[in-house]
């Protein structure tokens, strides 16, 4: 087995070390903040753009939702490439490129005059978002934490959950300045806030002379040499680390049943959850009589309430079998969509938020921890990208399907019932994955 010695802590590492907080938490927090602004503004804020775009251009709901689905598809296609690159060039470089693209995409989007320019701007944002979240942030967190990986992923996804406030921020900016000026402001803010945050991120703890989870540092080099007799059967002495992470290669993982069951479950859940995110403002205002601004508050509350699920399910995943925790989150997600489909009064939305949001947030936190447990870290980024690509099929189809049903029937209710059933089916799919670690252990020998 090849060996790598820990690097000496750099200046930033020494400064952060004086604060007595493991640097991995700074990395996760910076990544969460980047996701908060780069991802949340478009992912959640898009629903605030549906009516303004329809009013100005006369586009159908299905056509507008198609742009969101295009973002999902473009991001899904880019994810394997981004995942491959993050395993090889590290996360900080990809974050800087991604942030630059997201900011430019928002500025481009603020100037569009045709549907083709609209779709092109969305594609630029999609590619940038692929490099600022998903495979990049989760791969980095997986390297910095092992025993506390579930909790680290939970903290990471709180950035996406808290970014639900961006739908209200964007709706407020649109009301005050118009949608074009609002998007211009958002694009510039991406560069001003997120580029400095990217400089905080380091790909692996070894780059700073640290070990995952903040474990005690290794012995000084003279002591390591004297401890040669204590080397393990593979010849690995204390103070050294394997160059390659254990786990499955891409080809090995693709030949396993758990990989495809995970991708299927993510696709089914994405079919339901993504459609709700895109159409919730329009549905809530039409079904319950709330104003667009009030409906935007409901949309904002959904990811905020999901923080309970992200933190709670993420914590639970460190102590219970991850496939069971993930299945439970999918059940809540599907039940929540059914509650929304039947809502006719504003107070009924409280039940939707209380059930759907924790389930949806929990699934996002537990999925990468599940992947690391089943397939290891050797190709974590690339596999994360591939699962996103496969699951994109559901995330693309959901918003278009719901928009088409609304255009045909003038209601979302029938579509939401179908979305709920698909999300519920994700639970038994993930339970069929079986026990983890067996394939990883074999591949690591």
Brief rundown of the structure:
The chain has 445 residues and is mainly α.
Structural class estimated from helices and strands = mainly alpha
Count of helix runs? 20
- Report the CATH superfamily: MFS general substrate transporter like domains
Distance, first to last CA: 10 Å
Instruction: List low-pLDDT spans.
Output: 1-7, 223-244, 438-445
Range of strand content: under 5%
SSE series: EHHHHHHHHHHHHEHHHHHHHH
The level-1 CATH class = Mainly Alpha
How many strand segments? 2
Anisotropy-based shape? globular
The oligomerization state is: single chain
What is the CATH T-level topology?
Growth Hormone, Chain: A
CATH architecture: Up-down Bundle
Q: What is the number of domains?
A: 1
Which strand order spans the largest sheet, edge to edge or round the barrel?
1-2
Summarize the main sheet.
2 strands, antiparallel
Overview of this protein structure:
The chain is mostly helical and 445 residues long. The protein has one domain (3-207, 243-444): Growth Hormone, Chain: A (Up-down Bundle). The chain has helices at 11-17, 23-38, 40-43, 50-57, 61-89, 91-109, 115-130, 134-144, 149-162, 165-177, 179-198, 221-226, 250-254, 257-288, 292-317, 322-341, 349-375, 380-409, 413-431, 438-444, and strands at 3-5, 240-242. The longest helix is centred in the middle third of the chain and has 32 residues, at 257-288. It starts with a strand and ends with a helix.
């Amino acid at each position: 087995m090849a060996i790598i010695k820990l690097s000496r802590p750099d200046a930033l590492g020494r400064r952060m070390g004086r604060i007595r907080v493991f640097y991995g938490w700074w990395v996760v927090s910076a990544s969460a903040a980047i996701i908060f602004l780069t991802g949340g503004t478009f992912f959640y804020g898009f629903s605030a753009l549906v009516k303004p775009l329809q009013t100005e251009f006369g586009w159908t709901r299905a056509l507008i939702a198609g742009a969101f689905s295009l973002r999902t598809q473009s991001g899904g296609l880019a994810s394997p490439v981004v995942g491959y690159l993050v395993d090889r060039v590290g996360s900080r470089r990809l974050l800087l490129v991604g942030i630059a693209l997201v900011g430019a995409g928002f500025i481009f989007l603020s100037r569009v005059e045709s549907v083709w320019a609209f779709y092109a701007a969305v594609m630029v944002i999609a590619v940038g978002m692929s490099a600022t979240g998903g495979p990049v942030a989760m791969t980095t967190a997986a390297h910095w934490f092992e025993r506390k990986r579930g909790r680290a992923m939970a903290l990471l996804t709180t950035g996406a959950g808290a970014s639900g406030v961006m739908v209200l921020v964007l709706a407020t900016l649109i009301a005050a300045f118009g949608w074009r000026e609002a998007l211009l402001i958002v694009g510039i803010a991406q560069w001003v806030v997120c580029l400095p945050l990217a400089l905080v991120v380091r790909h692996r703890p070894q780059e700073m002379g640290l070990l995952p989870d903040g474990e005690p540092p290794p012995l000084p080099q003279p002591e390591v040499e004297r401890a040669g007799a204590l080397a393990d059967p593979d010849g690995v002495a204390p103070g050294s680390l394997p160059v390659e992470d254990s786990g499955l290669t891409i080809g090995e993982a693709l030949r396993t049943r758990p990989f495809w069951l995970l991708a299927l479950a993510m696709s089914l859940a994405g079919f339901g959850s993504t459609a709700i995110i895109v159409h919730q403002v329009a549905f809530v205002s039409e079904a319950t009589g709330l104003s667009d601004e009030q409906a935007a508050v409901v949309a904002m509350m959904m990811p905020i309430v999901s923080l309970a699920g992200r933190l709670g399910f993420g914590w639970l995943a460190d102590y219970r079998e991850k496939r069971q925790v993930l299945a439970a989150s999918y059940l809540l997600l599907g039940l929540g969509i059914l509650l929304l489909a039947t809502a006719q009064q504003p107070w009924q939305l409280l039940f939707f938020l209380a059930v759907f949001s924790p389930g949806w947030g929990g699934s996002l936190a537990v999925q990468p921890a599940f992947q690391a447990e089943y397939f290891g870290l050797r190709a974590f980024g690339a596999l994360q990208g591939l699962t996103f690509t496969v699951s994109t099929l559901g995330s693309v189809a959901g918003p278009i399907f719901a928009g088409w049903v609304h255009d045909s029937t003038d209601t979302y209710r029938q579509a939401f019932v179908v979305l709920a059933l698909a999300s519920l089916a994700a639970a038994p799919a993930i339970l069929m994955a079986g026990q983890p670690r067996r394939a990883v252990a074999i591949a690591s020998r």
